[in-house]
């Protein structure tokens, strides 16, 4: 019996040995990785904790190993994944089904030789694909994305430019528009707003010209989702079909408008200049003094654009609601008088404001921001188009300013204990007492979140007893407060935080 078992077992051992030999031989013939690979980022979507990468690795036979690695997934879950055509912002059909990601490891591997339609695709072709990558929550909830990223020619580079979108109708709504360059030179435009309303879809466009000039729509953007405050648009062309690259958008003559909704298109909630119209941090503010009515005065702020042109912003206090007041830059000084050199946008009496984009004189001669700072001129604001002879505010600009230029204080805070002043002779000064002169203009550039800066006639917290004559934007915690001191201002005023009595100082007013 033992002899029979030995004889019977011998062929079995030989069979196993041959099988192992053949398997090892087959393994040695399996296509190996070539060493070439490309990794793309997968960004979090519905769950901020889940993100990762997808790596394409070339095999020697031209096929591609696609490895997904996510962090933040959970054991027991499986997440379907696909490669889609077009960009994530545009959306598109599934090109390739991939193996689902195991929630325990956060990993999946798939070897790709063909697309779902059976057409062959190589590693090199995948890297040049117009595509993006989606990872879904589950097979029964494909609508919920947990990670996503552009791949191939749509990959986002680290080159980007962010523009400010300022509030318009509602002070609580503002944000940014970020332009990010793709590998193919095209652009992802990402809008992010705070203060939007859940469930409201807000229409957005890129317009021609500047905010001050206004212009037609040149690019339709994806509406802003009021629940998230976000929108993403892949921009390749203008609405006319003309191609436009990232680099061209950075030099574009345009601005962005975000409208409240499709049914309230006339209501703007945020806007900002982009491209060559972007406003720099370089500016100069001139005083516009009262003329026929002591209650009306203010400033004209000149801000330099990236293009070297100028935004002129007039802000007056004491104007009359419903009255439109023409404004101009004239030749020479106020004392000399002179003809009109530049027509400015009329001042809206309801807001006391006007904005004009200036690139040339009325005669067509080009003029830059730097040239305006040396210009022999002055500004007049007239009462109305039917009463041009009555001037309500005026001031020298450019080479005629002398002491007419507004003096600025930068105001920050140290917690709730004090305001900190810099500028105009002060350096990190805590709650300094100020001496200001009648007839001069002072600006307070305030950045004190949660601590509204008030100029008042009584040294007390709250909003009662504000001093309003000649003051624009009183009570701001993030902006510029302008104070053109009238001739009848009291000898003593105060600045104080609306909420904290320790943040205060005395303003002595002199002639």
From TrEMBL:
Q: Does the keyword ATP-binding apply?
A: no
Instruction: Domain (CHRD): give its ranges.
Output: 50-137, 174-261
Record-linked SUPFAM superfamilies: Cu,Zn superoxide dismutase-like, Cupredoxins
Question: Which first-to-last residue range defines the signal peptide?
Answer: 1-22
Supply the alphabetized keyword list: Signal
GO annotations under biological process? superoxide metabolic process
A GO term, aspect molecular function: metal ion binding
InterPro entries, A to Z: CHRD, Cupredoxin, SOD-like_Cu/Zn_dom_sf
Name the protein family: Belongs to the Cu-Zn superoxide dismutase family.
Q: Which Pfam families does this UniProt record tie to the protein? A: CHRD
Which superkingdom is the protein from?
Bacteria
Q: Among its keywords, does the record have Signal?
A: yes
Q: What is this protein called?
A: Copper/zinc superoxide dismutase (SODC)
